[in-house]
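Technical note accompanying the year-one report. For the benefit of new consortium partners, we illustrate the data format agreed upon in the data management plan: each record pairs a sequence with a structure-token string. No post-processing was applied to the example shown here.
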Amino acid sequence: MPPLAAIALACALLGACRPHPEPRGRDTTDRTSKNTDASANANADASADANATATAPAPARPAARPLPTDARLVAPLRAAGARGFVAMTNGERRVVAPVARGASVDADRPVFIASFTKLWVSVAALRMVARGEISLDTKIRDVLPELASRPWADSPLRELLTHTSTVPAFDDARTGFFRKPVDLTDPVKVLATYVPAGWKEKRGVYKYRNAEVAIAGVMLATKAHTTLGDVLAREVFVPAKMSHSGLLVGAPPPGLDMATMGGVRPQNFLGAGAGYASPNDLLAFFDALDAGVLLDAEGRARLFDGSPSRGDGAFGCWVYPFAGPSGEATRLVERTGTLGNVRLFSAYFPDEHRAIVAWNGDGVRIARPRAGPGIGRDLSRLALE
């Protein structure tokens, strides 16, 4: 084998974050690559369908402020002994920096993103709503008649995506659902089996239930007469030019490290936590959202409609005012992901046109900004510098 080929093979086997003689972040601005994930190539006409949703470009804005240095971006996680990466975009430039000293990061290698998947599902739902393919008032029983007898089947899509429905949590305590092999060829059967059928939660009260968004995703797929992976490809991946993202159902794509799950089966969570994406794709998602490619102004306003009565919950995310280094408050759109050993934190500032994503597979906790001092607050303030 030629020496260069041997080196490339060794790097691929060792993983995304391994010793490198010249540690530095990777500038991924204006990168393009061939789509190699099945979900993002789901339909030959996916791009045409995706563009059918009416969107409006964001208004012209001044030149973006420079990004913080790599050393400053990774400092909060590095101090906690984590590995992984911190990625950031200002709409004009993207940077992906490895956290560990002497490490490198492949900006196109996918990682599990856990509950970040919920934000994708919410965006896909709002795009379908904008085209009149489904309504936020559509109830579970209207789309999934197999579940019509459940006491929570009158929950509408709006409540599912804002965690205020009557749907209870997956019954993991009794069934071991999180870790057991589950036949995912019939998602409705999975819901019928593992979401309790004999009781319901109180309507209008915020609580965080993975089952709610899992059901919402199956509703979207059923209305679209396809799989949820295909729906996300059409509504999110293709228009945002995300080439290394998908929803895990069968065998994982090359390079996706299952060990970070610690025995938990992310695919069982369906649209609530089975997603994966590369660092570059996560930034591409925020760039597309910010530029009005995914949702028009009305759609973004709805997506970011955080309410204190819902714990600042909006559609698949949390939105609340956050004070940056200058003390002036701006909107922070927060989306986290926690599953197995994966810890993901993202903060998007729609009024500042900046987003930051931090990820580690070591189980190092990233405290949320509104919870008080910690890594999440530090990263959010860095993003506003």
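Partners are asked to follow this layout when depositing records. The chain has 13 helices and ten strands.
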